[in-house]
Amino acid sequence: MTVERRSRVTLLLPAPTTPEDFRAVDSILTDLIAVEGGGGATATLQNPPVVEGWWYDAVPREVVRDANMLVFADVRAAVDSPALIAFLEALKLRAQRQMRQEIIWVTLHEIHRVATHDRER
Prior knowledge:
Blueprint (H helix, E strand, L loop, with lengths): L2 E12 L4 H16 L7 E2 L7 E7 L4 E14 L6 H17 L6 E10 L7
Antiparallel strand pairs: 1-4, 1-5, 2-4, 3-4
Helix pairs in contact: 1-2
């Protein structure tokens, strides 16, 4: 079996609702697929959103629900690559600012992709 080691980057973004939000999502995705060793990303629908987040907000002491979109991209850089980590830290901060969020979840983990029979039909 042929296996490729890659890193999977996952972002959980608020579903865009304004033209400004849609532009921010487009910019974030464009930069994500341009990262060295990248080339593509997969995302849930922006509108209508298909991912709903549920979380407990301790200040008003209530469960809050919000519409989200899930984005993931597989890159060739190792999970401990300083360049990848620096890129993701900057992307996270920019996403939080552009999407007006206190926290944007960005996760990173190693994956092993089965590449046997790629490009065979």
